[in-house]
Amino acid sequence: MADTDTLTRPVSRIDFDRFPRTALCHQPTAIEAMPRLSAHLGGPALFLKRDDCTGLATGGNKTRKLEFLVGAAIAEGADMLVTQGAVQSNHVRQTAAAACKVGMKCHVLLERRVPDRDASYEVTGNVLLDTLFGATHEFRPAGLDMNAEGEAVAEALRAKGHKPYFIPGGGSNPTGALGYANCAQEIADQCAADGQRFDWLVMATGSTGTQAGLVAGFHAMGYDLPVMGVSVRQPHDRQVAAVHGLTQRTLEHLGAGSIDKDRILVDDGYVGEGYGIPAPSTFEAIHMTAQQEGVLLDPVYSAKGMAGLIGLIRQDFFKPTDRVLFLHTGGATALFAYEDQLLASLT
Known about the structure:
It contains twelve helices and ten strands. The protein is α/β, with parallel strands linked by helices. The chain has a six-stranded mixed beta sheet with strand order 1-2-10-7-8-9, sandwiched between helices. A four-stranded parallel beta sheet has the order 5-4-3-6, with helices on both faces. Strand 7 (200-205), helix 8 and strand 8 (227-231) form a beta-alpha-beta unit. The termini are far apart.
């Protein structure tokens, strides 16, 4: 646990003005108390960082990353964004909207990563919004190196006279992670302004850019707030290695030194059968958060993160006096792609 003085006093600041950036995001996003959920669980005081309210295309965490990624694309003279993700990717939806915002085209590769879905899975939810934003798309089978696939498509488009800028899955590279280094500074500023502190930050971790950016940002500022990532896909050791690698590269991009691997915290107990496949704990988190706080979580990322938070409380991981901040990464539009399972889980 970090001491109160550390978390409320002024902290070192990071100069983000040296990086290309374009405004896409409603910020700062609010920090809200969750008193009913806290009481329901009999746990520590819970709070919500509302990055589901970043504004672009119904909001979500990828918008912060896209401010720096699209800024870099504009600086390079690109006329098209190319990216990849799973079929119901929140990142793809926000990238397609960002392209509209700055007058670029968008082409996406969608990986059929989630097995045993019916045909509607590929036309509803985020895919419907991708289409409304005018993105063109093509599908890929599961298990390919999707970033390599995307790079190859970008090269083919370049050969046809386009000027594509390729964004890796989840926007998770050192440029994209700047968005969450910036969010770390935003959280520190909000705590300083309000005289409040948090002892833990809990979040869903997948493509690693959000957790890596937060850890890098807090480390660069000398701000002591541990970040617990609840894995939505990979086992513990692989996720820790991936987050640590991107955290290191982000710190190098910031010119802010290095960080020990033991500073990367991951709980892989809520993955269930795999990415995009909700576990019983996922549905419990969706229903509980909706009915206690009126907040919608998605079945791929944020609900698995909340399931992890609920599980940690039940395991007495936190002290009763702790104040725990949960980062809501958005994604509620994907709920419609899981309608049958959500309704069945109510019975």
